[in-house]
Structure formats: C-alpha cells, structure tokens
Amino acid sequence: MRTTIARGAAAALAGAVFCVSATGSWSQSGKPTAAAQPFLAHVARVEQALDALGTPLSKATKSSLRAAAAEPRDARAVELADRALAPYCLATVRIPKGKPLQATAQLQDARLQEQGWRTFLIKVVNDTGTTST
Predict the structure, then answer these.
(1) For 132, how many CA atoms within 13 A lie in the half-sphere containing its CB?
(2) pTM above 0.85, yes or no
C-alpha cells in the first residue's frame, strides 16, 4: 500500500505543473509561440499522471487534446491544448525577466474535499528559460 501511495504522490508532483515553457514560448500578449511537439508530449505525460492518480481528464478535454495534436500549426496546437487544460488549472505562475515571480489564481471554484484530495494543475510560464531549482 505504501508503494502505491508513494507512486501516486510522485505522479502528482510530476503532473502538477503542465506547462513549463522555454524562453519565448509565450509572447507578451499571452499567445503561445512554443514548438508543439515537446509541449504536447509534456501534456501527454500530465494526462497519464492524472489517469494514474484516478482523476482522469474528461472525454471532452481528451478530445480537445487530440484535436490539438492533429493541428498542423504549432502556435495553434499549443493554444488549443492550453485552452483545453485551463479548467483544471488552479493558478498560473509566471517567471518574468528581471522581475519577481507572479502568481495568479485561475479557478473560481477551488474547493477542497474533506477526508480526501482534489487534483489541480499549476501552469508555469517561464519567460526567462531558467531551469534552476
């Protein structure tokens, strides 16, 4: 049982952040400029982690993610995937160049569950491209 809990906790940590973007992945206007392939690969890992935790994405969200993966234009594919995951995102953390971290709440209805847990995503927009801890 402890092994299952430990794996679940590891999966939760791995899947908690769905968008760690490299420099230039989001423009100042908030439009994505990231390459779709690595972004969508990360989204797929988040989807797998959520499935493993027993809190899978809805069928509609999964369908939207498949449509994003089929989109030939990178910016549009990233935008569609980002929009599909937005309802699961508790907050956005932005790492701007030369400024302190910025955190913005996203969900209006972020209720906790008594005697249990709820799974949320945290979106990280890394304008600096930093990889340090």
Answers:
(1) 2
(2) no
